[in-house]
Design a protein that fits this description.
It is a single chain. This protein is mainly alpha-helical. It has two domains: about 45 residues, no CATH class; about 150 residues, Porin chaperone SurA, peptide-binding domain (Triger factor/SurA peptide-binding fold, Orthogonal Bundle), CATH 1.10.4030.10. About 60% of the residues lie in helices and about 5% in strands. It contains six helices and three strands. The chain has a three-stranded antiparallel β-sheet. Strand 1 and strand 2 form a beta hairpin. It is elongated and about 65 Å long.
Length: about 200
């Protein structure tokens, strides 16, 4: 049964390759000005490839490289794998925000609005927890009183809880989505097709 499946797969792949070649040939022969057999007609070599899928949305190597360059300016010690995971997480959150009809001027604004409405709004830090944190870490506050640092502690504890909740949400979103990180041809180390960090 496995052999028949492999044969069908090879036949299907060959049929797809022939169809693509036929389309390219059609474009070269008939749709260019000047008609048949234009001598300058050459197929372009594909220089980009898909490094990951999130359901039906692809992340290309050029997208990853561009995002990695931008992120390096802010976080110099980040890896491409971390950047790729962040790109996947953004897609997942934007899709979830779309389900709730959350809109914004930019994708970042949509993500922030989603996080504020669906995560941050449900976080409450009890006063006793803020006081406990102050007592346990009083040496960090260099002689400042509780009232001077209370709001900062509360904000820190909210952000800490928000990170825990976001991680849980993203884990759940990844379970319900088809996320596939592709290996680059010739990669035997399982580095998921990601160019290596130098």
């Amino acid at each position: 049964m496995g052999k028949k499946r492999l044969q069908k797969s090879i036949i299907l792949r060959t049929a797809v390759e022939r169809a693509v070649f036929g389309c390219l040939l059609f474009v070269c022969l008939f749709s260019l000005p000047g008609g048949l057999l234009v001598p300058e007609c050459r197929a372009e070599v594909l220089r980009d490839w898909v490094v990951a899928f999130v359901d039906d949305e692809a992340i290309t190597n050029s997208d990853l490289q561009e995002q990695y360059r931008e992120t390096l300016k802010i976080t110099p010690d980040i890896s491409k794998e971390e950047v790729l995971n962040t790109m996947i997480n953004r897609i997942l959150i934007l899709r979830e925000a779309k389900k709730y009809r959350i809109e914004g001027r930019s994708p970042d604004a949509v993500i922030k609005e989603y996080i504020d409405l669906k995560e941050r709004a449900f976080i409450r830090v009890p006063e006793t927890e803020i006081e406990k944190y102050f007592k346990e870490n009083s040496s960090m506050f260099s002689g400042k009183g509780f009232e001077d640092v209370r709001d900062d502690i509360e904000q820190y504890l909210i952000e800490r809880e928000l990170n825990v909740r976001l991680k849980k949400t993203l884990d759940e979103l990844r379970k319900t989505a088809y996320v596939k990180i592709l290996k680059k041809e010739g990669d035997k180390c399982g580095n998921e097709g990601l160019p290596q960090r130098k």
